[in-house]
Write a structure and sequence with these properties.
The protein is of the alpha/beta class. The chain contains 16 helices and 11 strands. It is an enzyme of class 2 (transferase).
Length: about 400
């Protein structure tokens, strides 16, 4: 048969170039070891002829889609699955796929208030219980800060929040806007430890309800105002602004407008921190080998990642001067690896909270992100900025203040 010859050629090509520890098991009973000299670490079961097309063009999008939709069955350790899937995608990568991804980024993606609200709801409103199973107790859903490298997740997340609030020099009485406040961890810490008056905004109903409940339990209603609100609808002036894990939802074409809004909300003596995931492609293309397409389809609809160069350019165009830039890529690789480990350990409980398809989506997404951060396919930067043209410094002349310990 034609497909048998095609598959045999495909297997032989891999054996010559990579010899992956992968076994294929077909619906016919046939088996292929892609490295006959090594015991397979991953077994890939192909249940029907129609499933073969996903394998023969093994982009991360195709492989991820096949796994999520049940077109392929995979057995093996999760990290081995991710590594072998990436190896297959790398072997068969084509320049045209990267070009198409860049085209979608620059010319696609509308970001109306309704579309953004629906996208945020899709991702964050699975259920609070779902996220509680694998996040830290404060439910901080962004990169931790492993100052010494051996912190547990909960400690790293508190250190991250303190690192942010210290970097922007939050003072008692400061009015702080937290754009994309999540479940309220940063807002609560800013009020409790730093004495700020906080407005936190989110488009997620679940996050809003839990954040408000947590603020109430802490007795901080007079210090923290949690709102369901689009960043484009915020008014007033703020001494400090934080945006953590949010600008990935803005869209490349709207970054300048986003930073202009921050500029207009920021007091003339104000300081802002943007903490967000960036592309490692200088052209701000999607993650390679089809990984970005999979995330767009199943995880973050309408999410777009700029390169750090574009971030800095658009900030400057919007009237903001970048003052300090820190790459936390290795910190996020470690964070995602812990999340993926937690997710695996909590599998029975998580499967009680969601369906098999969403379970598979998040399983490969978390482990895949750990892999992508570790290999410099995506990064994350903290950028401290102020309004352009200041003649006197708003921050200390050196970075020493960022590392001074506070009780």
């Amino acid at each position: 048969m034609f497909w048998e010859k095609k598959l045999e050629n495909w297997v032989n090509d891999i054996r010559k170039t990579s010899a992956l520890p992968l076994r294929l098991e077909l619906w016919t009973g046939q088996k292929y070891d892609l490295n006959p000299n090594e015991e397979p670490k991953v077994v890939l079961r192909i249940p029907e002829l129609a499933s073969l097309s996903y394998l023969l063009k093994p982009t991360l999008d195709n492989l991820g889609t096949a796994y999520v939709e049940g077109k392929l069955e995979v057995q093996g350790e999760l990290n081995d699955m991710i590594a072998i899937g990436n190896s297959l995608a790398n072997i068969f990568d084509s320049p045209s796929s990267t070009t198409a991804a860049r085209f979608r980024h620059y010319f696609g993606g509308r970001h109306t208030r309704q579309i953004d609200a629906e996208s945020i709801g899709y991702h964050y409103d699975v259920s609070n219980e779902f996220y509680q199973e694998w996040l830290d107790p404060n439910m901080v859903y962004s990169c931790g800060y492993f100052e010494n490298g051996d912190e547990d997740l909960a400690t790293a997340q508190i250190k991250k929040i303190d690192h942010i609030l210290t970097k922007i020099n939050v003072r008692p009485g400061d009015r702080l806007l937290d754009i994309g406040c999540g479940w309220g961890a940063l807002a609560i810490r800013a009020a409790e430890k730093f004495g700020a008056n906080v407005v936190g905004i989110t488009l997620s109903k679940n996050q809003y309800e839990m954040a408000r409940q947590r603020v109430k339990e802490k007795g901080l209603e007079d210090k923290i105002d949690i709102r369901i609100q689009d960043y484009r609808d915020v008014t007033g002036k703020f001494d400090r602004i934080t945006s953590v894990g949010m600008f990935e939802h803005v869209g490349l074409k709207h970054l300048v407008d986003y930073f202009k809004i921050i500029h207009n909300l920021l007091d003339d003596d104000g300081i802002c921190m943007n903490h967000g995931i960036t592309s490692c492609d200088p052209e701000s293309g999607e993650t390679p080998f089809g990984g970005g397409e999979f995330i767009e389809k199943y995880v973050f609809p309408h999410g777009e990642l700029p390169h750090i160069g574009l971030v800095l350019k658009d900030m400057q165009e919007a009237g903001l001067e970048p003052m300090d830039i820190e790459n936390l890529r290795h910190h996020y690789a470690k964070t995602c690896a812990i999340w993926a480990e937690n997710f695996e350990e909590k599998t029975p409980a998580i499967k009680q909270l969601t369906d098999e398809k969403r379970y598979r989506i998040w399983r490969v997404y978390l482990a895949g992100c750990a892999y992508a951060f570790a290999l410099d396919r995506i990064a994350i930067f903290q950028v401290v900025c102020i309004k352009s043209g200041r003649t006197s410094p708003l921050l200390p002349m050196s970075r020493n203040y960022m590392y001074e310990k506070k009780d």
